[in-house]
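quick one, 443 residues, struct below
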Amino acid sequence: MAAKSQSNDPKTKSPGSVTFSKAATQGQWGRACCSLTAPLADIATGRARLSDIWAKTPPVTTKAAQIYVAWVTFQVLLYMLLPDICHKFLPGYVGGVQEGAMTPAGIVHKYEINGLQAWLITHLLWFVNSYLLACFSPTVIFDNWIPLLWCANILGYAVSTFAMIKGYFFPTDARDCKFTGSFFYNYMMGIEFNPRIGKWFDFKLFFNGRPGIIAWTLINLSFAAKQRELYGHVTNSMVLVNVLQAIYVLDFFWNETWYLKTIDICHDHFGWYLGWGDCVWLPYLYTLQGLYLVYHPVQLPTRYSLGVLLLGLLGYYIFRMANHQKDLFRRTDGRCLIWGRKPKVIECSFTSADEQKHRSKLLVSGFWGVARHFNYTGDLMGSLAYCLACGGGHLLPYFYIIYMAILLTHRCLRDEHRCANKYGRDWERYTAAVPYRLLPGIF
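---
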């Protein structure tokens, strides 16, 4: 891939692949050069032992623990204590107290939707500190990256374990608990459907949408600040990653009410998969591009960077408009226009757990007539753009698109299995009308 690497180091090997000596001095084993195989090769050949790698791994520090406790506490306070006011003055934004989807036991929970407000307050304070107060360096996240990882793991396992114990001994609603007979599965995938403390603290919404996702853009900003500190400037590739991922994060918070109807909230129970995943996997794996660019600054050719930007924006447009079409269709019960026309639907029926018959409609117009999960296709296009922004010097930044392709394909198949069981022959009619899942003509 066409990408030019900026460096004062004369040992440039290929576009975007050089390791910068100044940054490398601050890295740890296998980290400064973003090596995936070197530590394993050293162990296999006897040049190193696991204890050697462990010795080079930074431990939990008091500073990191204080930062992390303050961070999570601050997000809990924003979540619990500040009623949303953004919906009162932002046209089109839906916030405040909203109802979620009905649970399998027939319960409809209420949520205080104030994520956009929390994101705005958090980032306002970040910029005020960076440019006015200087209470801490904007590189603080990068500078404590591995110690913070230990803290995130501690919280991830603690909340997953607590959710497990709570499900057994004091569930929010026993009717929505699921026990499989396997301790491991119960821990991994969760027992309680909607574990809560008090009236408003909902584990799913908080951990899915607060510490990790709000941190996502802050982490990227910290990486950009570190790049500027090390090299005196921020590359266009780092700007692309920050902008495209910030659009995705802001979209999440702008549409947080819509998120209450997604598979994470409507179908998944809360266990290690969501608890640890939200605390550790999301903030540490979804930000690999920015981390890579700290060690490997890549200055992209103008045409290439514009192509990446257009791909990311097109992917976002498809993702957002596909979801908007489905939401509009549901809210109006099909009495709307999709691409300027009355939507085509397939009438279907299903039987709920209480043996009651229900009627429903499946949309086969707009993006939902192109493929059955075309919103995922847009998501994958955006994910690819994040990775392409890093050039072609290393596989590491492309982990994200590989992971997202596996995740969304699995989610697509899981959702279709559920729909096939729910709608039966009506689902067969739907798949005949819209034969492709993600890629028209291919899959």
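Residues 1-32 have pLDDT under 50 and may be disordered.
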